[in-house]
Amino acid sequence: MTASDRAIDLATRAALAASEKLATDIVAIDVSDHLVITDTFLVASAANDRQVKGVVDGVEEALLKVGAKPIRREGERDGRWVLLDFGDVVVHVQHEEEREFYSLERLWKDCPVIELPEEVKRSNDEASSGSISQSWALDDEDDAQKDEA
User: What is the CB-side half-sphere exposure of residue 27 using CA atoms within 13 A?
Assistant: First the structure.
């Protein structure tokens, strides 16, 4: 069994939306052979809590335009790892630290990776080469200062 066309379409749209919000390391995984509850996972990283929320909002908005409403939304209050469950696709937007620690790709390494559009690949390449603006790092410092206050 492979992921449905709808699941792949939703994962692709979610990946493009996440990329527009400057998410990094965007990966779509076909988990349909291993899970009954969903066909695909989309995993994306964000530099800080504010960006996690921005990516989540962008993904949700993009998928709502094609009639996909989240069945479940978890982790939004903390902003470190937000899960959006659209049924066919589950979107994980993680703070970079959580992404590294939990390493979802490693857990699902036996599952095939879904090919994503060039725009998403380019944003991943740019992020890894450091050419994307580091303005999010300043937001992280602001958030840390607020937490200390």
Answer: 17
User: Of 73 and 144, which is predicted with more confidence?
Assistant: 73
Q: What is the Rg, in whole angstroms, of the alpha carbon atoms belonging to the chain?
A: 15
Q: What is the pLDDT of residues 68-97, one digit of tens each?
A: 999 999 998 888 999 999 999 999 999 999
Residue 134: pLDDT over 60: no
Cβ atoms 95, 49 nearer than 8 A: yes
Q: Please report the DSSP string for 73-112 in residue order.
A: EESTTT-SEEEEE-SSEEEEEEEHHHHHHH-HHHHTTTSP
pTM of the model: 0.81
Element (H, E) at 24: strand 24-30
CB atoms within 10 A of CB 100: 11
Report the C-alpha gap between 64 and 127 in whole angstroms: 27
Q: Which residue has the tokens 């919000």?
A: 21
